[in-house]
Amino acid sequence: MKGPARPKRTRLRAASAARARPRLSSERRRALETAIGYRFKDEALLLQALTHPSLIDEFDGDAGFSNQRMEFLGDRVLGLVMAEWLIQKYPKEREGHLTKVFHRMVSGDTCAAIGQSFHLRDYLFLDPSMRKNEAGHYDKAVGDAVEALIAAIYRDGGLRAATAFIRRVWINEDTRALETADENAKTRLSDWCGANKAPYAVYTTLSRAGPDHAPVFTVQASIEGRGSATATGRNKQDAEKTAAAALLETLE
Hints:
A 3-stranded antiparallel β-sheet has the order 1-2-3, with helices on one face. By secondary structure, it is mainly alpha-helical. Helix 3 (43-49) packs across helix 8, helix 4 (68-89) packs across helix 5 (95-105) and helix 6 (108-117) crosses helix 8. The chain is 56% helix and 9% strand.
């Protein structure tokens, strides 16, 4: 005689328990660790940092299954390391300037750009719908995973290891421009033109590429007789601001 059937949720948990957490092959793990410049002692921390919340239901995971909690921790570690670095770099600057640079350096789109620099999305564990979802101002899945990766390194190797990683991947030629970028770069460029008795900048949209849900605009900012700069953005406003900041860098 058969015993009473287990509740459906218990049966589901038992079935999912047999499913191992997604893993990286040894080759892919080595490739990622080489790209980020850190080798993990505890592989479980790395795997958690790479696991997107979209897989929680599929694997019947709990709060510690995905990288959400690690993202929370990594955001704080990044903030601490970046704040300390800015204090050291700008010993005479007021708090207002430090705050502006800080927010740009730790923003979601900056984190996503950092992750894209070593192709982090290729290593993430995502459900099929999320794997196709790269629309929006930046790739949030990648940005969140970068913060989770910082937390994983912090828990695996301590603050010294996390600091070394952040300084290695953030403080480089690609991110240094963020320190001097200005959210109102177009206004600053207009002020420069007025102060230097130059014609005001003209913004020309050179191209629009990509699908309708994720367009990429290429815009040129130019000042007659003074030069020009070209930049891209998810919308024309962002592209114009970036082009203005790039042109300002050549003029100032």
